[in-house]
Write a structure and sequence with these properties.
single chain; 176 residues; alpha+beta; four-stranded mixed beta sheet; 8 helices; 4 strands; 59% helix
Length: 176
């Protein structure tokens, strides 16, 4: 539900703005959204003892030289009791900004750390394939294989050792 509401705010924020203004707004909202990882901050926003005006000022204080657009957005969200969807708005705005600038980020999941030049070659190949500017980050986890996930483009490419083994077994059994 909050995603649908956030999309409406993002649509209104994007109207009549160039990519530079949207980038500034996105950076400011991401600074504010990072504060939501603190439980004390969330308790203050959900408290009935703190006035809406004080909540708005607290949220605005996280950004130095806050733009008028961001201030007005925070005031509007505070008046409607929706300060808790700032993180969702920031995420949706980042997605729209990626679409506008044709710049995307992705994640490479592996169980071993890959060399930086290998990650760079993956970036170059995927960027050429999709005609975008791409930055890949590496996530070393327990995935037995390699998987590249580019969420903004809806692309997920993976190779799993377990899946290869099971397909090889099935192929051998069918051949026999």
């Amino acid at each position: 539900m909050s995603v649908l509401i956030a999309k409406r705010y993002v649509k209104a924020l994007l109207e009549g703005k160039d990519s530079e203004a949207v980038t500034t707004l996105s950076n400011e909202l991401s600074q504010i959204a990072s504060a939501f990882s603190d439980d004390k901050f969330k308790m203050i926003l959900s408290s009935i003892d703190v006035s809406a005006k004080d909540k708005e000022e607290l949220v605005i204080s996280f950004v130095d030289n806050c733009s008028e657009t961001t201030k007005n957005l925070i005031k509007l969200l505070g008046a409607n009791g929706r300060l808790d969807i700032i993180g969702t708005i920031s995420c949706e705005l980042s997605k729209k900004l990626a679409d506008l600038t044709n710049t995307y980020t992705g994640v490479v999941y592996t169980n071993n750390e890959l060399a930086a030049d290998y990650i760079k070659s993956l970036e170059d190949k995927f960027a050429a394939k999709f005609g975008v500017s791409l930055t890949l980050a590496q996530n070393v986890c327990d995935y037995d294989g390699i998987k590249v996930d580019i969420e903004g483009l809806g692309v997920e490419v993976g190779f799993s050792k377990d899946r290869l083994k099971s397909q090889l077994k099935d192929h051998i059994l069918k051949a026999v």
